[in-house]
Amino acid sequence: QVQLEESGGTSVQAGGSLRLSCVGSGKSYSSYRLGWFRQAPGKEREGVAGIDTDGSAKYLDSVKGRFTISRDNAKKILYLQMNSLKYEDTAMYYCAAGFYVADFFRTSEYNYWGQGTQVTVSS
Hints:
The chain contains no helices and eleven strands. It is mainly β. The strands form two sheets. Strands 2, 4, 5, 6, 9, 10 and 11 form a seven-stranded mixed β-sheet that branches. β5 and β6 form a beta hairpin.
């Protein structure tokens, strides 16, 4: 079992940067595929980025070139570096972990979720 806790969300102006962190606990953390999702008010939760156990990553088209997902298995921390933030990036951001993730952008693929951290981008 894995427990996840996000941090780093705050208010920022458009064009700014933030780094989100997700601290994990539990055995076999390095064996989990990990992802970042976000949910804006009135919208469905959407996958932003996912990272495999070998460090390979995939991104939502709208964040490619701006966001970078990374993981530190020794510290059991997942990161999301967000640059050139836009108003439309405003959302609650969640990290997630799953063993058998075939589609990084599908919420049902993940077994464990954090509570979320709020990112607000002002234009």
